[in-house]
Amino acid sequence: MTTKRNQQIVLIKVEDKPGVLSKISSLCRRRRYNIKSLTVGTTDKKGLSQITLVFSKEEERIQNIANQIDKLIEVIEVEVVNPRNVIDKEVILLIAKNGRLEEYIFKKSTSYDINVRTINEIQGNPVYEILGEGGAIELFLDGIDLKNDVVKMVRSGLIALKI
Amino acid sequence: MTGADILLKSLIKEKVEIIFGYPGGVTIPLHDKLKDYPQIKHILPRHEQGGAMMADGYFRRSGKVGVCLSTSGPGATNLITGVANAYMDSVGMVVITCQVATNMVGTDAFQEVDITGITQHITKHNYFVEKVEHLPRIIKEAFYLASTGRPRPVHIDIPVDVLKAEAERFDYPKKVNIPGYCLPEKTDPKKIEQAVELIKKSARPVALVGHGVAISKAEKQLMKFVESCDIPVITTLLGIGSIQEDHRLSFGMLGMHGMAWANYAVSNADLLIGVGLRFDDRITGRIEEFAQDANVIHIDIDKAEIGKNKVVDIGLLGDCKTILTKINQKNPQKSHKEWINQIRKWEKETQLGKIKKQVRLKKSDHLMAQDIIAQIDKQTRGMAVITSDVGQNQMWSAQYYKYKKPNQLLSSGGLGAMGFGLPASIGAKFATPKSDVWAIIGDGGFQMNIQELGTIMEYKLPVKIVILNNGYLGMVRQWQELFYKKNYCSTRLINPNFVQIAKAYDIEAYRIKDMKNAEKYIKKAAAYKKPILLEFVIGQEDCVFPMVPPGNTLKETIIKRK
Fold first, then answer.
1. pTM for this model (two decimals)
2. Complex confidence, ipTM
3. Closest alpha carbon within chain B to A31
4. What is residue A38's three-state secondary structure?
5. How confident is the model over B318-346, as pLDDT tens digits?
6. Residue A60: which domain range?
7. What number is the average pLDDT over the span A98-104?
8. Who has the most CB within 10 Å: A62, B146, B287, B524?
9. CA torsion B461→B465→B471→B472, rounded to 10°?
10. How many Cα atoms within 13 Å fall on the side-chain side of residue A20?
11. Are residues A31 and A97 in the same domain?
12. Measured between CB atoms, does A60 come within 8 Å of chain B?
């Protein structure tokens, strides 16, 4: 499998209380760490949410910000994870111009191990749902001319499950 | 029974004896109930910032969590500098602000401000109380968080309708349940072992001591450790007094205005043992070149401090007292005669007494702050509690008084908040009424919280106020002199008559211009049982030396004026 990693992943287990997300994001701002993506959702445990926080590879001293986040009272656990120890996924919703990306998308979906579905068509432009591992999604996007071949695109941000 | 009763009953459960509080529209339901709880003394500062800084001084002297209280909006924002100061210096404090009614929150109501949003980064944790039933648990948690681990301020914001709400009963929880807050677990014995090995191997060790020793009351354990391993001790500003200054292993303070020999010792050490400090830039100088050749052992209760500024070889997570006890149990022993003699040689070459004379602009045509502080030291036999303000007065207070005990010098270390000295002295006096408290303040900082003279007057607090008046914001002026070609922009102070001001507050006051009178009045103040203010007119352009220019390394300590 081809996995390029321009990502450092921090998994945070938090109490599901108001204000937690704001505290974590503004702590990153205050310590001048730039968040690449952030997702929050509930877990199998009641009252416990997980935040998947992604920084780019260039961001230095990730353990330091993890230590600072750990000091927030609502935070139960923080871990800077090795990508090898997680299953991670990201979804892209993408409207392609005409059929321009048709060939690329379905060719790469096999080589990068990405799931692609055509879920709709808007004014002759296909809408794709593209699901894959964070690293694969990055590689996949590198090969697309976003300016010329894409009408609109949005990413979900990464979710990761520790194994 | 109302929410206000619940709050006050909870405070009594936490053994709170004193609150520094300022009333306002939304605190009235609370202040209205105070008369029913005579166990709690309510002190009225003249500004909320003063109240927060009094609570700070109270914690530092008593070891008990300080409590300050304000109304919503401006009352709450006025607290902020005091809270930030407590946060930076690891001071246990519970900050209570009252808030507009819950149904008005978020509407930009009169005197509404998002105070929990504002205190987020300067508190260990904060709470907005949604329901009166939550109050006892929140107060229990707040005191627990403020006083355990690394002590820091915790903020509780209480809407006025919660204070007024009727409550059926009062049940104070016996335990806390905070899943996201764990105190450091047992230290890995292997790491202690490794640390002891490193200590045994080192030829030029230095123990760097910060506020952590005073907070965890570890001075005896520190003493045992450094005496049996024969390790010189150098302290940060807030570490002063952790070792008696006349002890043979005490080598003073390091850093920007530290003793030159202390800076040399750290620069030449092969092992640094950091005990409860955070390697702040004011002590390290340029961090990349700070103690380059040394291995570093860092003892701290806050995991995020270990390796934050200085890369460490062994991090020992835990409270200083526990960790030092564990190291002492291994009974490491060593002698470092040669190394200590080397530092002593540096000490002789750069002796403070010598420096003191050399900073004089002319032979001595004016009073010098250094002499005044040395004189206070003499007249109080080194036993007074000193609260300093920020700037030159702070550094001189650190350099020229011979401290003997932890928390004998109270100073705004991390935040460097001017205006700290006077309110801190009030908090200190309430915490330990028997101790002799002296506030040493510059003419600038005095005017930042000058209104607290009213508090001193009202409660007849026999605090000794020393103003070192050089007619400048002295430390900034010093930087302008040294680094900005004497462009004294906005640092000249046109001052009022401080003696008359003090007298208006019914405080005895004297203006002193020469050493003979300085001795006379310091002696008088030392024996005086009422508040007294001494204004010393000192040289306008005296500088604090030694000095490491900002961004330089400790090796580049300037000892005297060119």
1. 0.95
2. 0.87
3. B121
4. strand
5. 999 999 999 999 999 999 999 999 999 99
6. 7-81
7. 86
8. B146
9. -90
10. 25
11. no
12. no
